[in-house]
Design brief:
188 residues; 5 helices; 43% helix; Nucleotidyltransferase, domain 5; alpha/beta
Length: 188
């Protein structure tokens, strides 16, 4: 059995927060993919967002699909074990290419299974919903979304690789949805 290769280019840093403050929500955002699965962990505390961690799990194309999915599953369980998220947000993926759609769907399923087996509620968002919550415009381009992630988490640079930035955007989208639900008196 092999394990996924983590990509953790955490050269960006977020603003320092006061220690000892009560945690309200720790969200694990997922940008699913079988070759590269992006993840981002965001802490929502006192109405503010803080970057906790981000990176990618990768699997080699030379391995069988089942091995790649198992590797992603165990990699996600390690991330869950380290960061103890209270919720997971996963991006829904729509593709014109059937082969790509199936592979991404399988990776989404693995992420959802890892969350379910860890007792973590899962929330799903379309790319348009993520863009709308991040930039206020459902058709924002990739660079605009990445800049908004950088700004909202007070990072010095845009997170790399793109899959990690996308996963952070999904986590921020869910945090924004949580805030909106609290404002209108509902819950999600």
């Amino acid at each position: 059995m092999f394990s996924p290769t983590p990509i953790s280019p955490r050269t960006c840093s977020s603003a320092t927060r006061a220690s000892g403050a009560a945690m309200s929500c720790r969200i694990l955002g997922i940008d699913p993919g079988i070759a590269i699965l992006g993840y981002g962990v965001v802490l929502e505390e006192g109405g503010e967002l803080f970057n906790v961690d981000y990176g990618c799990l990768t699997t080699p194309s030379s391995h069988a699909t089942a091995e790649r999915l198992r590797s992603l599953y165990w990699g996600l369980l390690r991330i869950v074990d380290v960061h103890r998220p209270t919720e997971m947000a996963v991006e829904l993926f729509v593709a014109r290419n059937l082969k790509t759609a199936l592979a991404v769907g399988q990776a989404r399923g693995v992420a959802i299974l890892a969350a379910a087996n860890s007792g973590i509620p899962v929330h799903e968002y379309t790319p348009a919903e993520v863009k709308q919550r991040i930039s206020g415009f459902g058709r924002g381009d990739k660079r605009q979304i990445q800049e908004m992630v950088k700004m909202q988490l007070r990072l010095e640079c845009i997170p790399r690789p793109d899959d990690a930035a996308d996963a952070l955007a999904v986590a921020i989208c869910h945090a924004t949805q949580n805030r909106l639900a609290r404002i209108i008196g509902g819950g999600r």
